[in-house]
Structures are given as structure tokens and as C-alpha cells.
Amino acid sequence: MKLKDKVALITGAGAGIGEATARLFASEGAKVVVADRNIELALAVAESIGPRAFAVQADVAIAAEVKAMVEKCVSHFGGLDILVNNAGFGTLGTVVTLEEDTWDQVIDVNLKGVFLCSKFAIPEIVRRGGGAVVNLASTISVVGIKDRAAYVAAKGGVAALTRAMALDHALEGVRVNSVAPGVIASSYYDKIFESVPDPVEFKKGLEARSPLNKMGEPIDIANMILFLSSDDSSFATGAMFTVDGGYTAW
């Protein structure tokens, strides 16, 4: 098993990429903290995994909640080896059309959340002798996209922060990398499909963004997160690994 007896904290693990990662990590021998703002989703995932999983409710944009989340993780499993900063969300809007509070919310969850979770988790990882942090960036960190100004800014910040963290903590034995997913099938897109006039054509448009002409699945990203969290990637740090079906190769 690639993560035998490792303790992993995964944010936004109640659904999508986070859930797939939690399940994959547990199957590889890890003890998993399933963290999510929606405790009902987190509990459902943790209960279905079994005793190797523990659910915690936390808003990653609130320092006190993040600190308590990490403390609960350490108290329950005895330490922390891996942090996966997955929690995030996006919204439509340009710098002209976005309301200031919407901008703040997107930046707070996607970028400040990575800062806060890492701030409290990295010292615990160091106490265990080192480990890994994996941040979820996005292909828009590389190419951008129209009408997503706050989300593009936040994910670009995640990619840059990853490099800074990797340099700051390399000698402490903490490797820090990011994953840049392309279009991944999720409940986020399910809701969009319900709201557009022609969901079939809309989905075809999403699929056409990739040379592989399909959307990715959460497990596609979870597999890369597993690689970056395990000893298989022991010489990788400060890098962004793109998993987008070739979208950024156009």
C-alpha cells in the first residue's frame, strides 16, 4: 500500500475530487480525515469508508475553524502526514461585474483557505518527520478563461503559493506540489446542466475543450494526488501537474 498508516487531511472531501481522493487514500492504507463545510456530506463519506476515516466540519476561510480541524485530526489519529487542499468554488463574473463580497468569498475559500490550512497543518507534518502537501490549482492557472476573474486570480495564486511553500519548507521534509485539473465531471456541472436550455449541447462543448473529447472523472485527479502524496514522487516539489485531457496543449 502506497500510504500505509499515513494520516491524510483532505478538505472539500464530501463530494467530487475530494471524496474520490479520500476513498483512494483509504484503499491505499491511509487514515483519512474527511473535512467539509457540509458535515452531512463528510459524515456520509467517512461512514462509508469505515473506521479508517473521520469526519470534521470546517470552513477553510475561517482561521479558528481550520485550527480546530487540524487539532481534531491530530487528536483522533495521533499526527498528520499529508494535507490535500481541495476545497474551493468558482463563480461567474468579470472585474467589472463582480460584487466585492463575491470576489472576497472566492479568494477567501480558494486561496486564503490554502494559506490557513497549510499554516496549521505544516507544523504537524514536520513533527512527524515530513510529508506532503498537495494544492488544487486549475488549468486556468495557465491559460485563463473568460468571465471567471476571481476564480482565475485565486487559482493562479494557488499555483504561485505552491512554489513559495515548496521553497520555504523543503529542508523541513515537506514536499509541496499542485494539481491542475481540466473539466471534471462533478455535482457542480450537474447543477449547470439542469439550468441551461440544452444540457446535451452544453456538455458536448465542455468535452470539446479537450483533445480527448471527454470530461475527466474525479478519480483521474485523485490518482495524481495519490502520486504526489506518496514516495513515488519523492523528488517532486514546487511543481504543478496538469491533468486536463490535453486542454492546455491546444
UniProtKB/TrEMBL annotation:
Keyword Metal-binding found: no
**Protein name (record):** Short-chain dehydrogenase
- PROSITE patterns attached here? ADH_SHORT
Q: Does the keyword rRNA-binding apply?
A: no
The UniProt similarity line reads: Belongs to the short-chain dehydrogenases/reductases (SDR) family.
* Record keywords, A-Z: Oxidoreductase
Annotated GO MF terms: oxidoreductase activity
The species is Pseudomonas laurylsulfativorans
CDD domains under this entry?
Answer: SDR_c (cd05233)
